[in-house]
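Quick start: what a row looks like.
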Amino acid sequence: MEKSSLITKEDVLKIAALAKLSLSADEVSRYQSQFTKILDSIAELSRLNVENVPPTSSVLGLKNALREDEIASFENMEALIDNAPEKDGPYFKVPKIIE
């Protein structure tokens, strides 16, 4: 398999700086090798002929398993409110998140 462009130690250090990570020399070497392998894999995939392959979002054939929302009554509202960390009468009390 032909190699894609080799990732240099400087490339790894630049990526680490962007991610605000400090790496040891061993980590730089390990990540350099791993990044190169990732790019090699991507290069190999880009050489595949996918002209007659339909677009797909999952190879497993999974479908959205969500259900429609349904309004239902809850019989023991007091027990539910009693479990709240904070409450204000019959309501849950939550921190304000909008300024």
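That is the whole record. The beta strands are 87-88, 91-92. The mean pLDDT is 87.
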